[in-house]
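sorry for the late reply, my laptop died twice this morning and i had to redo everyting from scratch. anyway the thing you sent over, i finally got around to it. pasting the sequence first so we're on the same page, its 287 residues, then the predicted structure underneath. double check i copied it right bc i was rushing
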Amino acid sequence: MTQPTDIRGEHLHTARSLTASGVPVLPLRAGKVPFGNCRHCADNACGGRPNMKTPGPCTCPNPCHGWAAATTDPGVINSMNWARAWREAAAVAYHPGGAGLTVVDLDNPAAIAWARASLPATRIVPTTRGEHWLYQGAMQSANAVRPGVDVKSTMAYARWLGPGTGIMTVLPDVVRALVVKEPTAVRPTAITVPALVGGGECPHRMPAYLDRGIAMAEQHITAASSAVHATVYRTFLAVLSKHGRCGCLTDAHIARLFTAAHAKGESARHCSDAWTNALTTLGLSHV
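ok and here's the structure:
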């Protein structure tokens, strides 16, 4: 349903004020959801926008791609391409990560009670059902980190409900820890490797050499900021190409790699698939 003119004007005024402060904004339609992609970007036919720092091939002037449409450019939010969205907008949203912020979204009284007992005091914005706790600093977003609690920062949007009250504090480690998944016990795909030609001791069995290689692989996975699937596969491939043919890899070594991948959000299935694909590529799959 189209909003009254004064409400539409208020949303646009709010958006202009936020962009002037460096906060990326986007309009929301009824239901607190972003506007859908235009026909040119439907089903991400354009390639999409993976994140704000590397926007990808899409240069669509419409408010497409959800949170990735958030902008601080006044020329964009005041453009004719966004005019219809503002006419139909039910609210204004912003990209917390793009503004260097993290929102801990507390959805009910129990979640609020937990936050008061567990988190450092910071700026609080009342919501319809609970509170938003705002911290200075960006991090990975995640839903349902505990009952009634979501974390909204990078690659997410939050509804603008006002500046809130209280002094905003620096993002604490206890909030960052909320999105760290507990390692899942995974039994990696067993590998069958050729025996050493002519026998002899495997040169990779030197603890320092092998441990250094595994540690470097873990670090490479942990440092990935995008294309995590591809990074995990390439890392598995590199490890197997170096150590897969002499049989020096143990379940403990492989579990370390899987655990690093899990910490980046990879599922057990993705890890197993990447490992199997790497084995197949190198000709080390079961025979």
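Residues 203-281 form one domain.
thats about all i looked at so far, will dig more tmrw
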